[in-house]
Amino acid sequence: MRAVDIIIKVRDQIELTTEEVQFFVTGIADGSIPDYQVAAWAMAVMLNGLSTRETTDLTLAMAYSGEVLDLSAHVPLAVDKHSTGGVGDKVTMVVEPIVAACGLPVAKMSGRGLGFSGGTLDKLESIPGYRTDLSRDEFIAQLKAIGIVLTGQTGTLAPADGKLYALRDVTGTVPSTALIAASVMSKKIAAGAQAIVLDVKVGNGAFMDNLDDARELSRLMVEIGKLSGRRVTALLSDMNQPLGVAVGNALEVKEAVNTLLGNGPADLVEHCLTVAAHMLILGHKVNSLEEGKKLAESMISSGKAFEMFHRLVKAQGGDVSYLDHIEKLPLAPVILDVAAEADGFITEFNARVVGETSVELGAGRAKKTDLIDHSVGFLIHKKVGDLVHRGDILFTVHSASQAAAAMARVKVLSGIHISSEKTSALPIFYGVVQ
Ligand code: URA
Predict the structure, then answer these.
(1) Given the residues 112, 187, 311, 398, the one annotated as active site
(2) Helix 304-315 vs helix 249-260: angle between axes, to the nearest 10 degrees?
(3) Which residue from 47, 133, 181, 364 could staple onto 359, CB 3.0 to 4.6 Å apart?
(4) Residue whose C-alpha is closest to residue 257's, from 335, 322, 331, 330
(5) Catalytic pick from 81, 108, 112, 168?
(6) Domain boundaries, the chain
(7) Mean pLDDT, consecutive 10-residue segments, the chain of 434 residues?
(8) What's the topology of domain 331-419?
(9) 230 annotated active-site
(10) What is the fold of 3-63?
(11) Ligand 1 centroid to 170 CA: how many Å?
(12) Does pTM top 0.90 for this prediction?
């Protein structure tokens, strides 16, 4: 078999056999297919799509490109969650400690920034020492010891996704239903959790910009989960404006800590309690959404959720003094407040523009080898539906230079619309697919 023939088949919309999918994924994982062929194939997939059968084959081949953990041998029931990617999405750092503090083991393999969306691993690496490359044995030992683990793809766990993910990030091949489904579900299958909550984002700051596509992606992932014996709930959530206040790696870690301490912004808190409640339902800890949200909330007010985050960071080598003194986390040298130039209601605060500009500030990568600036990003002070007056601060830029701050000011302002007509606030969730 030759990689080029497989690329040509996808280009010409000819369905691949299971063996061809497996051959290609093996070549990605062991490096025998070079990056330029993988990138060409990813672009063909992105433009032409894959059938449901091909996507399932791709997911399983990616999951089995490394080890697939069977956590049932180690804990009675492990749960996991995954977001399809958004702007200001620090939900994992809040929800996983909450759920683990409820006594439900949480085993998660996260990703890095992808396109304009941030990645949990990049965020956590704002904490000096935090390791995102745990081995299989470390993964299992930590889950058994403290009931929570949050790491990345490694040479042994979902290696094909690790390589493909990094290439997609810089080749314009992220927003593909097949590639997202395979990327998300291969990691979930490899990490071994038996129950999974998917947070499928929809809107201008998501890879699915309309509800129909987001529903299709959700159904596909739920179906793939079922085929692999996992129970999956997908939540459709809004991503037309940034979630919470902070966008950017260290800024989001600060907000996650504040949220775990009971001082989170209202939309983020509601979002996190809902995701946590669905995980608690799948994990048989509660019987209803209301009961789950109440239990989750009690983990915040009692301090147990923050304590669990502390334990997680310590277990993975992070310096926990950065959690106790969040002012120690990286802070950008230039901080610029940007004010409204007119009175009115916010009708748009475009999440994609914020995400793309955040990457331009250095919070994400333009090339695979780029280093990230953990300190840069935004604080978003207003939401769609808010009434603002001329001079009110709309957002704050954190940047490495005055020139970058000036660029960011202009770009983000171009995604904000203020109108004299009253607009309602955006919903947080649009529905559930099970
Ligand atoms: N999250 C992932 O892990 N992969 C994607 O492709 C998108 C979001």
Answers:
(1) 187
(2) 140
(3) 364
(4) 322
(5) 168
(6) 3-63, 71-324, 331-419
(7) 98 98 97 98 98 96 94 93 96 98 94 90 97 92 96 86 92 95 95 95 96 96 94 98 98 98 98 98 97 98 98 98 98 98 97 98 89 97 98 98 98 98 96 95
(8) Aldehyde Oxidoreductase; domain 3 (3.90.1170)
(9) no
(10) 1.20.970
(11) 14
(12) yes
